[in-house]
């Protein structure tokens, strides 16, 4: 006698057949089906062959907003949750998990400047990751003496409360998602999970979502996906290597989507503010981290100018400063006066204290 209830493998096979049946006959999953597929992948209820096939088929067909919304539903259900720390929104930056390979990041400095100005920031990511295997955010913080990778989820929240900076480290706080990382190398392409990560957030309170993107269709996809999940407010940044770091070598393109769905498009010209120039190349990790520490010490360099350009914009965008010029002046002063360096020391101490306690 056959079974009345299909196994998880059989259930996943039916979902795989929908997305992987070819250019003319493949179909988008419903939101509920996408959530079920993501849940079975996270829980390893699908076989490795099925997971790999799903990820590459989904990349070829390109995910629909409803599918990404469903996959986010599953991540929200199975992933980590950080309880609200205050009524004030936490700014959550969505940066590609596979890191940076060509240009030097200044996101850590931006986070420190914002936190020192009273804007709490939450970041998330993992280790070096396919397909780029670029420098990950956690490695940058480690180079600054901040041990985010060793914190439990409760300790992440404690540090976020005390310092205004938090980091959710995938292998520790969301190991189910970390188990899917090797598939990226095996299929040789970024799967839709790489898009999903840009708008995923472990924070349960009010957030200000800021995400980087490279290709214009991705921006629209992210906007619609978050709107489906009841969180239409979003800032999109066409940044360096898909990050939220504005380039100095070209105009910055920023989209600001408000809660009512209306959108402003900002084009920011660094040369108009005396901050244009070549983007600092990414050196070997030990050299780069020394350069980043020099930025925090207020020493002049191309990377310091990039930090002022980015820090000033985000100080204005997050409501700390009334205009861009004030934002740039404040970012420069905070670096020269050691405010950002002091915040970095506070975060490093809070991590050590959380671990010790």
From TrEMBL:
Domain (Glycosyl transferase family 3 N-terminal) ranges: 13-75
Q: What are the entry keywords?
A: Amino-acid biosynthesis, Aromatic amino acid biosynthesis, Glycosyltransferase, Transferase
Q: Where is the Glycosyl transferase family domain?
A: 105-340
GO biological-process terms attached to the record = L-tryptophan biosynthetic process
Q: Which GO MF terms are attached to this record?
A: anthranilate phosphoribosyltransferase activity
Q: Output the Gene Ontology cellular-component terms.
A: cytosol
Superkingdom, according to UniProt? Bacteria
Give the SUPFAM superfamilies listed for this entry.
Answer: Nucleoside phosphorylase/phosphoribosyltransferase catalytic domain, Nucleoside phosphorylase/phosphoribosyltransferase N-terminal domain
Asked if the record carries the keyword Glycosyltransferase, the reply is yes
Its EC number(s): 2.4.2.18
The record's listing under PANTHER family reads: ANTHRANILATE PHOSPHORIBOSYLTRANSFERASE (PTHR43285), SLL1634 PROTEIN (PTHR43285:SF3)
Protein name in the entry: Anthranilate phosphoribosyltransferase
Which organism encodes this protein?
Rubidibacter lacunae KORDI 51-2
